[in-house]
Amino acid sequence: MTTPQLDELDRQLIEVLAQDARVSNRKIAVDLGVTEGTVRGRIKRLQQDGLISFTAITSFGLADSARMAFIGVQADFADVREVGRRIAELSSVNAVMITMGRFNILAICLFNTLDNLHEVASSQILAIPGVHHVETSIAVKTVKYNARVVRITEADVAEVDDG
Question: Which residue range is the domain that position 32 belongs to?
Answer without folding.
Answer: 8-48
